[in-house]
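Give me C-alpha cells for this 186-residue protein.
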Amino acid sequence: MLRTGWRPGPEAGTDGPVLVSVTDFTFARRLDLPGIARAAVRLRRGWPTLDGAVGLWLWTAPWARRCGAVSVWTGDQALYGFVGLPDHVAIMRKYRTRGETRVTTWMSPGFDEARVWRDAYRVLMGSEDAGAAPDGGRGGPGADVSTPDGAIPGAPEAAPPAPRRADGSAAGCSSAGPPRPPTPRG
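Here you go.
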C-alpha cells in the first residue's frame, strides 16, 4: 500500500474528540486509477481551507485496484459539509458506477496520528470484524455511500452549509478541467 504524507487541515491542532472516516474504493478497471488519483489530489489541495478538517492521507493499492482516503474531522457536520461539496459530488457521480465504495467511520477520543493510521490500516486490511470499527465505531465495511445524490446514509436531510474559508468564501476545490488527450505524433 502506498500513501501520501499527512495533509493537515485548519483544525489540525484540535485536542477534542475526532471523527475518523476511512474510504475504500475498489475500481473495476485499472485504467480508471489515473483519473481517480488526479481528482483526489485536486480535492487534497483544498484541505487546509475546509472547516472542521483535521487532516487526511490518500492511499492506494494499485495491484488490488483499490484507493481511498483516511480523513479526520471535528465531527459529523464537517464531514457532511465536505461530502456535499460540488467537486466531491461530481467525482462520486463520475466514478461510482466504476467500482464499489465502502466507508467506515468511528469517533476517537482525540487525534493521535500514529494510532489513527494504525486503526485505519487494520480496517483496510480487513483485520477488523465486519461492521465494527476501532473504538466502537459507526458504519462498517460495506457501508455504501455512492447514492445517486451523493449523500451519506445517516446524514441530515437538509445539507449543512458548505465549508467556508476564513475569509468567508466557499471552500470548494478548483479544477483545471478534464485532462487533455495526448497529442498525436506523426
